[in-house]
Amino acid sequence: MLAGAGIFVHTRLRADLDERIDDALVARAETSLPGGDEEGLTQLLAQDGRLLAGPGARVLGRAELAQAASGPLWTERRRIAGVEGHARVHARPSRSGIVVVAQSLDDRDEALGSLVQSFAFGGLVAVLLVSLVGYGLARAGLRPVEAMRRRAGEIAIDRDTDAALPLPAAHDEVRRLGETLNDMLARLRTAYERERHFVADASHELRTPIAVVKTELESAVRSGDYGTRARGALLAALEACEHLASLADDLLVLARAGEGALPVRPEALPARATLGGVAQRFGDRAGLHGREIRVEAADDVIVRADPLRLAQALGNLVDNALRHGDGDIVLQAAPDAAGVELEVRDAGPGFTPEIAPHAFERFTRDDRARGGSGGGAGLGLAIVRAIAEAHGGSAAIGPGPGGVVRLWLPGPQPVQDGLRQQTYGAVTQQSTREAHE
Prior knowledge:
Number of helices: 9
Shape: rod-shaped
Low-confidence stretches: 368-376, 413-420, 427-437
Helix content: 40-55%
């Protein structure tokens, strides 16, 4: 816009100055006597081009002389003897011959040059000022949008029950956008609450019939009143029932964790005994696959946690290692500066770089990387993280080869006094069979 305005003003000013110069030349041609000075000159030429009066050499050429003899002529010369600088020339016929007048254009060119310089300097200053003002106005106009963006990044639907985006004071488009987004947040929060209550209610309703079915199946297995095929079917049904019960418990834990009300009753627990109980529980299952579960923990390492919740978290990790890992499973406990670190690892392929950052999210599965065995709903590690956070701790994928998951819990950490190792699995399975025999 500034460039267009500059071109327009330059064109109009040049036209006005040229018009004034032309009027002055016409007046001189009509009234002035032949002569000259630094600003211009006047010559009288004969029809054949001879200089009759006036200073210097003839200004017009033969073609221009013929044109001036028949009518007015306007032209410009870069250099004319006796005239300083660029000159404008006017010639017209008269009774005495052809009158030629010329005038210097230095004043005009100087005025136009000053105008160009003024526009160049003033335009740059104007662009700078307009840019600063525009930037300030844009910042002021977008400040409410930035405030809404920052607040939106802080809102968690599962925890912030009444959070809303800040609205600007002005009743403009930005405020209407914020109101629309707040309405959308309210609808999302309502839908999330409805889903969470549904999951909690469904989990509660599922636990009773699953427990009844499981009890009946266990009674049938203990009775021994069945054939070989019936025993296999009963065991498969019992395992599926166990999986359903675990899934219902997991869903209930996630629902309570989402409400921020996952109950935990921490108490001082011997880490080795706690890990040993989990290993004992999964020992038979590991033995069926020819695998072992080893416990490596010091005698005096104490972890402060809810025993049932901790057993559930560790059980999910061991179950995950049995389903998707390979080789022996190691349960390890070690104190650190502010708590106790519990580790479950196996010799499987571990987590792929793509899935590792999302491993603790709900319904995340990595069947291809972890052996492709399928099974599971992808809730195990989400339960582990929820239980760890309920205790004020954390859960993470550990570095190194194989599948490694580390669970850190705050609490007392006595000095490690000798590492004892227990093995469960194939050996435990064998001992159990010998005891039955």
